[in-house]
Every structure is written in structure tokens, then in C-alpha cells.
Amino acid sequence: MDRRLLAMAALVAVFSISLVAYGARHMATGSEASASLAVSSSDDGGASGQAQIPPPTMTMLADGVYHYFGFFTGSLVVISDDGVLVTDPSNPMRAQSLKDEIAKVTDAPVTTIALTHEHFDHVGGTGVFPEATVICHRNCVATFALSSLGDVPTVDRTFDDMMEVEVGGKAVQLHYLGPGDGAATTIVYMPQEQIVVTSDMYEPRALTHKNWVDDKHYVGTRRILNEISTWPITHAINAHSPGTDPVDLMENVGYYNDLYDAVKAEVDAAIAAAGGAPFGAYSLFDTLPQTLELPQYSDWANYDTSFPRHVERMLLSIYHGD
Fold this sequence. Notes:
322 residues; alpha/beta; Metallo-beta-lactamase, Chain A; five-stranded mixed beta sheet; 14 strands; elongated
């Protein structure tokens, strides 16, 4: 076999195995995720492996509006005769799969890419769509300048608070409601179709794995989820799960509110006990992640392994502002 083909095959194998591990961390660890994730070892004692990635799906949510889910990541797809809008191509391999699925529905090219935030696992692959205008909140640009990986897009248009893009008569709104998961957290909303898109803000009946919470502003995430929960919603797309049931969003609003209330009560009590001095809450960083519990969520995936990190991050967001 040609050396270039061998190198590409090796790269695909490594990428696929890494992607399965990534998907396993981002998705719930219940039966749904277990059924969709598998890595089979060969007879050489596991020296090589074959990753089995579920085939991509394109689910129609409304006339001309689809949810593409592939490589453990979801994208909104809005189709018109003149062009297509997509969110978060993620990487070149996934972007090509997304392009192939869109081609089964329309001949129109992808003309707009709306990025939901600045994290590198969402923003790659834009080069697969050379005709597309790339839109991201203005906070993306400074982060992209720091990339050591290279596959970050050139942003063609930025916005501050809100931008509305029209696709075939359909309004696609991009809202910045403050930091959530990252500094450029963008909520995509189609008011007529009542479809909302968030990324990395929540997972269905699961806590975000502890390895992926360091850049999440927990007070900001709570505020954003509370805000969008008041919008009319028929479908709620989140980054790393295939479903679109708004119930998942609403349950996570309850979780973030309960977590905030529990942590804030401890901070207030500690400061009051110190006569109002802010340093009275310092010791909570050593104790509260190990002592606080929310038993009503103990059956959610990742609770046992990741809940202490959620407590720590909420504490840091309340007390330190990040």
C-alpha cells in the first residue's frame, strides 16, 4: 500500500479511537451511550484496536431544518435554495461527513457557518466549506490567535450581543448572553420553529465529566439556561447527545439552580461566621467539594466521579468570578 495511504489509515484509526474516548466522556454513561460506543481489541493483546463510531443521522426538525448528529457531536442544518447554514463543523473528517449528508437533501452549498463558541473541538473543518462565511462571537478571535493546533478558522463576521441571519426566509438568531462554556458562548435560536442550540452547557440526566469543566463559568451557565428556558422551545439541540427533547434542558435548569443555591448558602454562612469578611469562605475550597451532596441527582451519570468538581467550579464562579 502507498505510504501516504498507510499514514492516512493510521491517522484515521488513531483519530477514531480518540474520538470514541472523547464521546464516552461527553455523553451519558447509561445504556444509550453504552449501546453506541464500542472499541474492539484484536488478538494481539490490544496493541491495535478498531473503533466503531455510530453512523451519522440527519433528523428533520421542521421544514428545511435538520439536526445532524455524527462523531458524537450535533449540528443545526438550515437549508434554502440559495444556501445552507450549519453550526460547528468540528473537524475536517466530521465536516466532510456533514457535507455528504447535506448533499443527500440539497444541491445548495453551505454558505454560512455559525460557531457556538471558541473551543477547538467545535470550530475545525470550516475549510471543507470554501464558500461559507464563518460567524463567531467577537471573543472567539483572541482565543483562536492562541491556537497551537492550527485548525482554527478565519472568522469573517463577528457580533456583540445578537445577530440575525436569514436563510430562505427563516430567521436564525445568534445570542450572546454572557460567558457559559467558554468566553464566546453563543445560543442559536430559531423563533418561528422554536429550536434552540447550545453547546457543552448540559447533558441529558448526566453531569459533564470532570475533565471538561475547567472552562465552564457555572454562574454564567446557570443564568443562560434559566434565560433560554423561558423561550418557546420545541427542540433543544445540545452539543454531544443525539436527542432534542426540551425536558433535558429543563431538568438541567433545576440542577444548576439547586447546585447554585446549595453552594451559595455555604458561602454566605461562612462569610457571616467571619463577621462579614470575605476570607471566611476560603476554607470551603478544601472541604465543600467533599462534603456537599445533592442526592436527588445521584442517579445521573457521572455523579459519583464528577460532582465534587461541579461543586468546586460553582464555588469558584460564585466566589472568584470565573
